[in-house]
Every structure is written in C-alpha cells, then in structure tokens.
Amino acid sequence: MELTQKYAYAVWENKSFSKAAKALFISQPSLSATVAKLENELGFKIFDRSTHPISLTTKGTVYINYLRETEALENLLAHQLKASDDLSAGSLTVGGRMSSSYCILPIICGEFLKKHPNISIIVDIEAGEEKLKSQSLDLMLSVVPQTTEYATIPLLEERLIVVLHKRHPMARSLADLAVPYQDIVSQNIAPEREITDISVFSEVPFIITGRSSDSDRRLAMMMKNYKTSPCIVINAKNVDIRYRIMKEGLGAVLVPDIFLSNFAQDSDELYYFALRSPYTYRTLYIQHQKNLSENKLLDTFIETMLKVCQDKKGLLQRN
Predict the structure, then answer these.
(1) How many helices (H) and strands (E) does the chain have?
(2) DSSP of 101-122, one letter per residue?
C-alpha cells in the first residue's frame, strides 16, 4: 500500500483527521493536504467531512474496502514469504516422464519431508516440458535437457540393462552371458562380463513403446545393423508396463539400473545383460525455470536431490 493510501486508511480507522495525524506523527494540515491530493487524483471524495465522526462517501466506501483487501493481501504475502524463507510452509510440484522419476522421486521426497514436514509436495510422473514451460511444474527430471531455456543440473548417470525372462525361447542360449542381479545393484559388473557383440540379441524381440522414447532410440542405434522383430506396445507410457510384459516371456526390455533396484524379488526368474556401448549410459538431469533460481524452497529440495543421489550405489541397494 502506498503512503498516501496508508494516510487515507488511517483517517478511516481513527474516524478523525486529528487522531490519525497523531497516530502517524504528522501535522493535521499535512495529513489533510495529502488526503485532498489523493482525492483529487482519484476524481472523487473519499470522506464526507460534514459528519461527526467523519464518514465515507459511497465511492469512498468502495475505495476503503479495496485498501482493506490490499492490506490483507500484503500481510498474507509477507507471511508466505517468511514461511518460504524458514521452510515452515509452501508447496512444490515435481515430476518427469521417464521411469527413473517414479523410482527416485519418492525416495527424495521422503528424505526432504523428514526435515520439512509442513511442505506440500505433488509428484507428477506424467509431467513433460510443456508443464515446466507453463510453470505448473517447479522441477522436472529429464534425460534430454533443453539447456538453453532452463536451468539444468546433472543428477546422476544411469546404466541401461537388458532383461529377459528365463522362460523366453532364446533365454537358454544366452544364459552364459548373463550377470548376477547383485552385480548390477552393487555397480560391480566385471568388464569381461560386458557384451561387446550385440548381434547375440538379433533374434530376440525387444519390447518397445512405439512412441520414440529415449530408450527406444538408444536401442534402435545399437541394433541398427541387425534385423530384429520388436514387440511393440502402443502407448506403453512407462517402463513398468514393458517390464511386466517381459515377465510373461514376450521379449527383452532395456531398462535403467535404478528401475531394477525396485524388483529384487524377480531376480531369480530373470537374466540380466550388460552391454558395452555408449548408448547404455545416460545422464539424468534436474531442470527448472531460470527465474526460480532464488527460490529457497526449490533450492533446498535440489540440495536434497543431489545429496540423496550422490551415492548411486546406496540408492541402488536401498531396496
């Protein structure tokens, strides 16, 4: 609220120019002149000076109600800003479409809420760039960062692993190439166990989305020299669907090691294969609007993300 508006509001609160002047520690003539100038700028009288105590004109009533609402909003803003500074209140919406989002974000949110239980967090696992752009999303995880438009921070490196159910017809012939599940979650895959000749999978159908996802594109680049018959699952929006289809013996899937850490109970039924290819490594990034970089709540959440993901081995072995 501007100073002249505060003066007018003080007159209304005290129902008197003289009492308002004392409360404001200014002279009555100065206060009267300031209010008269404001009324001249507005084009109408705020106060009916002929009554005792002083009263409002019809338009003055509308104007004072406006000042009352303005004061309430300013007080609310001050409270919210203070709460944001000490993280005693506030909300965040975080998300991302890739499988790692719904594997990692619940862990991060849980750690964050241990220290800041009054913060409200919405996790949107279908969130894409359009929501980040419209600012309906505060933070997004991505493997294909738009580095020029958004603030981008590397979070961790994933390794994509080929998984095949033991009941698949090709499983027995590939069994000797498999690596133990524990070697994946401990990040202890011996170099000699990595597969360099990807043609061994040329007769294995891979379950893909048909939507040109990042994992689909990487798989296509690795297998471009071989004729394959992929098992296409239309609109399989997340890797969990493809993983479940793989478990029925329909084909292999290429999935992040972070995702596999959630399915230790399946390990005896499956074969895991580590490929030696640059396409099986990808970086997961944090992205947010650049104009939010001074948001303490967002900054604190990002600090938690980086701390949780600093030891990827611990994150993999969490489950």
Answers:
(1) 13, 11
(2) HHHHHHHHHHHHHHH-TT-EEE
Nearest to 263 by CA among 250, 276, 244: 244
- Compute CA distances 78 → 47, 82, 83, 84, 85, whole Å: 30, 6, 9, 10, 11
Residue 138: φ, ψ to 5°:
-85, -30
Q: Give the list of residues 6+ apart from residue 222 with CB closer than 8 angstroms, or none.
A: 198, 275, 277, 279, 280
* Cα(40)–Cα(46) distance, integer angstroms: 10
> Is 58 exposed, middle or buried (CB count within 10 Å of its CB: 0-12, 13-18, 19+)?
exposed
Residue 43: is its pLDDT beyond 60?
A: yes
Q: How far apart are CA 98 and CA 302, in angstroms?
A: 18
DSSP-derived letter for residue 195 is B
Q: Is 183 exposed, middle or buried (0-12, 13-18, 19+ CB in 10 A)?
A: middle
For the stretch 51-85, pLDDT in tens is 888 899 999 999 999 998 888 888 667 655 655 56
Q: Is the pTM of this model over 0.85?
A: no
Q: Are strands 281-289 and 55-56 parallel, antiparallel or unpaired?
A: unpaired
